[in-house]
């Protein structure tokens, strides 16, 4: 992504007209709704750097709380040309293509181990990727004849995940983190990366997924890639196959199409 | 809505099959006990407290007798025996001796001397057993009198004099919201705020790992993940906040927690005496979604429901969860089949229909054309098959998005199905479902949105009828027939085998797999459990 010189591309929020900088905010203040509370909300938004705030509504969200919807304008400009985000380049291969690539080019079944780690008991994410059923009509990795998928389920300790992955000679480890209260997902993920480094296991592909995960965050934590909400099993499989081909120095078939690591929509 | 034309004979057949399923499991349940059942017995007698490592006294006692190999007689026997040795001893003092002292019944060589003690122990427990049940009855009476005085729900519906289950009689679904801050004091504040804007029922979500720990934590807690620890003190803190708030608002407020996981019956007891109104309690949820051993869960659910029956608590079953793993269209009949099974187990534990908040959910893929019609079909079908049951209608969780505006609209349609099909309890959907535990303002937006739909569609259900040859009717009839066929299979192969094959929620759980099997113990012919005996005899009157 290194470009010698870039044409600046300044942008700001688009409300009704280009560059009007209009944004909306909603928040709650821990005081009863009153004229004084409304003024507090207005000043608060001004302090955020938003000019001409309009309090669209103030509602009593309980006797001791007031809920606000506020519109205002911001003069903050960002240079879009100056932003670099490591996008996950995932080939758009069909399930059949992925299996054929594994069979013909990698020449052995891939082992993929997945778990929801720490105290997190929500298996919905890891199940969507690994279980036969899959997600949004896209079959899970268990359904791939050339992938040996192991779903360790929820509340798996990082140490257990690593020892199980070693025992199964995993090519890739998928970690799902759903609960994000007080950033428990970040702490837990970082601990896993540290443990893997200490055990010299950095050759295994390490992928992170969850509703609050994106590729940037995952890379910062030391994972190879991160997948946000809306990710389909075939995208994960294609990414793993692509990376393994890269590592072997093998050419990767064309039809590459980048997908954002962030929100995949509904 | 005008009734769907469904064949009552199929419904009847479903009930018979579900009763047979429960009946065959009961041969196992009635011959076994579990460590959590035995700990509950001690709690009923007033045994409380933890040691300096946070281990509850009831765990210390029960574990000691389990290791000695004599728990098959029932912990009550040893408690009674210990009490009889020194008149005037309290159950708490006796339990301390049983945990740390030199109590009877710990040596295999003692067994020969047990026979002489059975009647002595029974006699020593007669008065404590009476007191234990009186405590449950007193808590129930207090709830009932407050409800009769204040009424429940937005219409403040007044109860009939003979009704002894707290519930609403008319009006839109009761509005149920969740608080989940991890800090019980924040939970109490948010519970009050939600009630002030119209919530009728407050559930405090548990910390994520709690269902898998084999003891009940102690005291007030301020740190938890994805929820707040369920402890007796935390129950009291929220109840006290609601007691105060309901007087100001002039309508009764209900508190909910979770009688599920490895401590299912213990939580049922703590909830019963701390005046909780509802408990998440499902015969199979722990097996399927928390990988708790099937034998353990099925034994535990029975004893927990015996207590719940006596306490007049409303259960909420967890069929909504099936649709988070299985597909809501393909697996709709498994939800209905499971509701019949949950109902059959609940009847066997002495619950009345008015206590059975069978659960189901708005989880059909929103991308599917006419998904709304399929939701209507299922919701109306469940309403009709279980007419006296306080049916619990659950929101979309799987097909939600970080686009809160879109998600808020999904919740609007969910509210519409809820009111149009006369659901009893509605867990309100949150626009931030797939983002974080609800903000105070998310709950506000959900409640005001639901109020609008409920008010706008107040009489909708009595105005609509279904085309006999239309899609809704066809769908409902198919789901019912499929549920009946599935129950037929489950009844012939047995519930344990059906669960092991993955019939429910696409999850396979073998009979001897999962957590907690080591805590299941075959009862001795002389097994003692005066609490269970009393609950069973009174329920069958």
C-alpha-based Rg of chain A, rounded: 23 Å
Instruction: Give the integer mean of the pLDDT values of chain B.
Output: 94
The topology string of helices and strands of chain A comes to EEHEEEEHEHEHEHEHEHE
CATH architecture of the largest domain in chain A: 3-Layer(aba) Sandwich
Q: What general form of chain A does the structure show?
A: elongated
Low-confidence runs of chain B: none
Main CATH class of the largest domain in chain A? Alpha Beta
Distance between the termini of chain A: 29 Å
Q: Report the count of strand segments of chain A.
A: 12
Can you give keywords for this protein?
heterodimer, A: 266 residues, alpha/beta, Defensin A-like, Rossmann fold, 2 domains, five-stranded parallel β-sheet, three-stranded antiparallel β-sheet, 29% helix, disordered C terminus, B: 541 residues, nine-stranded parallel β-sheet, two-stranded antiparallel sheet, 21 helices
Give an overview of the whole structure:
The complex is a heterodimer of chains A (266) and B (541). By secondary structure, chain A is an alpha/beta fold. Chain A has two domains: 10-80, D-lysine 5,6-aminomutase beta subunit KamE, N-terminal domain (Defensin A-like); 95-247, Cobalamin-binding domain (Rossmann fold). Helix content of chain A is 29%, strand content 24%. Chain A has helices spanning 35-47, 95-106, 124-130, 158-167, 184-198, 215-220, 233-247; strands at residues 10-11, 22-29, 50-60, 66-74, 78-79, 88-91, 110-116, 147-151, 172-176, 205-209, 225-227, 256-259. In chain A, the strands form four sheets. In chain A, strands 8-7-9-10-11 form a five-stranded parallel β-sheet, sandwiched between helices. Chain A has a three-stranded antiparallel β-sheet with strand order 2-4-3, with helices on one face. In chain A, strand 7, helix 3 (124-130) and strand 8 (147-151) form a beta-alpha-beta unit. Chain A starts with 9 loop residues before the first strand and ends in a 7-residue tail after the last strand. Chain B has 541 residues and is of the alpha/beta class. In chain B, strand 2, helix 8 (184-196) and strand 3 form a beta-alpha-beta unit. A nine-stranded parallel β-sheet of chain B has the order 7-6-5-4-3-2-10-9-8. The A-B interface holds A 26-28, 59-65, 67, 119-124, 127, 131-133, 136, 153, 155, 179-182, 184, 211-212, 229, 263, 265-266 and B 182, 189, 192-194, 196-197, 207-209, 211-212, 225-226, 290-291, 324-327, 365-367, 398-399, 401-403, 406, 434-437, 439-441, 443-445, 448, 506.
